[in-house]
Amino acid sequence: MPATGPVSVADLGTASLSMPAVSDNTTLRLDFILEANGVVLARNSCEIALCSPRKTPGLPP
User: Fold this and answer.
1) N or C end of the chain: which has fewer CB within 10 A?
2) HEC assignment per residue over 1-57
3) Given CA atoms 43, 4, 1, 27 in this order, what sign does their dihedral have?
4) Higher per-residue confidence, 57 vs 19
């Protein structure tokens, strides 16, 4: 990761995540932690809604 100043951003690339199949609607919390040499430099989190398949016979999923 390149060095940045306060209130700056850096492009860290992309990552793909597979979400689990769920039987009931729920939320999932993703925690992001930036560390250097075992020291936490920054933390952030994001909550994602996971929806179960529709239970309506005769309608598309």
Assistant:
1) C
2) CCCCCCCCCCCCCCCCCCCCCCCCCEEEEEEEEEEECCEEEEEEEEEEEECCCCCCC
3) positive
4) 19
Query: Quick check: 36 and 28 in contact, CB under 8 A?
Result: no
The 10s digit of each residue's pLDDT in 13-43 is 998 999 999 999 999 999 999 898 999 988 9
pTM for the full predicted model = 0.63
Residue type, 52: S
The set of residues, in sequence order, having a beta carbon less than 8 Å from that of 4 and lying 6+ positions away, is 10
